[in-house]
Write a structure and sequence with these properties.
By secondary structure, the protein is an alpha/beta fold. It contains nine helices and ten strands. It has a six-stranded mixed sheet. Strands 5-4-3-6 form a four-stranded parallel sheet, with helices on both faces. Helix 6 links the parallel strand 7 and strand 8. Helix 1 crosses helix 2, helix 5 crosses helix 6 and helix 7 packs across helix 8. The protein binds pyridoxal-5'-phosphate (PLP). Pyridoxal-5'-phosphate (PLP) binds next to helix 2 and helix 6.
Length: about 325
């Protein structure tokens, strides 16, 4: 691999690491506090298109190292992966599994945008779309997680389940890569990290690494309002689904009316040239509110922009008036 010429021997060498970080781009016109350096970390430039490349690659490597997946086995005869996913983890897992020769089955709620369901199939996954009523929410069954678990139990020879909602490697991926990248990219000057909560792997991993370096760094989580339609994210009321979340690791949780995720994403595209998806739009709004409290404040903030807008065109059409009209 040669980073200067950007020539890689295979796609896996493109995965992000301290030596090959995803870019930090400074936000200009949309930063309300001129003395505060506000950066977006563009995770959509990872090889399979989102922040979830980090957890997915870490989990696959571990399954291979433990012999749960056998390197070199054929797709037809060997064991594959089954995973409940709102899309991005599945897309990363499916692309990597296909390139390595493993089968992949994704259990996906209906509300996941069409673009993601199709991309999962393009990447080579078998996709089970389940009724949203079965999705994890207070008082309901375990939905997609339960179904994936049944596959892994009933068809042990065919499937192993990484389980991003319980797998510590989902946190560790960010301790090993995202945190050190941010530390190096900001030369240790980072004061704030703005994150969202899906499995909470990013939030927990970044908190562990960054607070280990400097306990005064603030980790601020941004959540969409209840009943939201922001794929990949959870409101606090939905967080019991993930075993990774520990509120004590977070300095503040901001709740934002979810529609703002869409309007801010559009604004970032049109004003900053950043093709942010709705989860990035939501995180930006959280950062903006923190900076608006004191526009004279100084600091260095990093917003995790997990995914771009391309996979959310149908959601954008649903939530932003006029976009879908000819
Ligand atoms: C677009 C998007 N943003 C944010 C997240 C949240 O990341 P995490 O699962 O690490 O909390 C996800 C997770 O799937 C996602 O798909």
């Amino acid at each position: 691999m040669n980073h200067q010429t950007r020539v890689y021997d295979n796609v896996f060498e493109m995965l992000p690491s301290e030596e090959n970080p995803s870019p930090l781009v400074r936000v200009g016109k949309m930063n309300p506090a001129p003395n505060f350096e506000l950066y977006a970390k563009l995770e959509w430039l990872n090889p399979f298109g989102s922040i979830k490349d980090r957890a997915a690659s870490e989990m696959i490597r571990d399954l291979e190292d433990r012999g749960e997946l056998k390197r070199g086995e054929t797709r037809a005869s060997g064991r594959g992966i089954v995973e409940p996913t709102s899309g991005n983890t599945g897309i990363s897992l499916a692309a990597m599994a296909s390139a390595k020769g493993y089968a992949m089955r994704a259990i996906v709620p209906q509300k996941v945008p069409l673009e993601k369901r199709v991309l999962l199939r393009i990447a080579g996954a078998d996709v089970d779309v389940i009724n949203d009523q079965m999705c994890p929410s207070p008082g309901m069954g375990e939905g997609s997680i339960g179904i994936a678990r049944s596959y892994a139990k009933a068809q042990k020879d065919h499937y192993v389940m990484p389980n991003q909602y319980e797998n510590e490697l989902n946190v560790q991926a960010h301790v090993r890569t995202t945190g050190p990248e941010i530390w190096r990219q900001t030369e240790g000057r980072v004061t704030h990290a703005f994150v969202s909560l899906g499995t909470a792997g990013t939030a927990m991993g970044l908190s562990k690494f960054l607070k280990g370096k400097n306990p005064s760094i603030k980790v601020i989580a941004v959540q969409p309002s209840e009943g939201h339609d922001v794929p990949g994210l959870r409101n606090k009321s939905e967080l019991h689904v993930t075993k990774l979340f520990d509120e004590k690791q977070i300095d503040e949780i901001l709740e934002i009316p979810f529609e703002l995720a869409y309007t801010r994403a559009l604004e970032l595209c049109r004003t900053e040239g950043l093709f942010a998806g709705p989860s990035s739009g939501l995180i930006y709004e959280g950062a903006r509110q923190v900076l608006e409290r004191d526009t004279k404040q100084k600091g260095v903030g990093v917003m995790m922009f997990c995914d771009n807008v391309f996979k959310y065109v149908s959601s954008m059409v649903k939530h932003v008036k006029g976009l879908g009209e000819e």
